[in-house]
User: Fold this.
Amino acid sequence: MPPSATKRFDIEISEVGPRDGLQSVSAIMSTADKKHWISALAAAGLPEIEVGSFVPAKILPQLADTAEMVEHAQRIQGLSVTVLVPNAKGAENALKAGARKMSIPLSASETHSLRNVRRTHTQMLAEVRAIRAMFDALPAADRPFFEGGLATAFGCTLEGQVPEDRVVRLAEQLLEAGCDAVGLSDTTGFANPKQVKRLTRKVWAAVGRENLTGIHLHNTRGQGLANALAAVEVGLTTVDSSMAGIGGCPFAPGASGNIVTEDLVFLLESMGLKTGVNFAKLLEARKILAAALPGVELYGFTPDAGLPKGFVPATVQE
Ligand code: ZN
Assistant:
């Protein structure tokens, strides 16, 4: 099902902490703690959680229990559960685990692609076609939703500027190869708000609004929330973020820090945009994270400052 068909809030926050966050933390969170944390994130009202990645455990031992996380999270009523798959082998394992939504990263910078997944653009598009063929062999109702994430869409630590026309072309190629939608990702924290709007509109002009609804932003240079605001203003409806800002991309030197879910929720709710998230329950989930990963730095201004006196969020707080 396309994200638009499941949209329940003004802006859907996709919580990436259990995947993007944990893969960058060297400490391994126990399977029991992860389940507890994911349940708490869902209980706080986050509509979607990226629960892991189907990569070999020897590469990312932090995510070795992803299949178990899929099974756990998909039992939570109403929660959209998504996983990252780096290639067709990963998608096959995700399918075995029963995953209903998957995303594959395609780095607009070929240098980054080679570093991240050891494949060229041509090789990655071949993986996408192989995955599409695998899904198309299933009955229509059993086919997972399959998104292509355009990584380093706003610039690359290794290559520098990434031509916007290349990003547009890759978006078209991902859809032609069999993705159901594409997303934009500022893997390196290079983006600025004008660029977010311009690139979104360029991709829309090429592939249609319905095929690009989400964005993944990093706060590497402190522009994360400004870029999130630009994304919302231009009309994107799904924004990725990570509880306490944990994570980033371990393969892009110098890039760290997903945008902070707690601060993103405050930004959106204070502007009257419903996210479905309950603040008190969100802070409960943060406590679980803090206890499970002692010594790992947790970010975010809103958790420290608290909500302003008399603050009325857009989402009714139960
Ligand atoms: Zn990230």
Q: What stands out?
A: Residues 20, 216, 218, 247-249, 258 surround zinc ion (CB under 6 Å). Strands lie at 12-15, 48-53, 80-84, 101-107, 145-151, 181-185, 212-216, 238-241. The chain has a mean pLDDT of 94. The chain has one domain: 12-305.
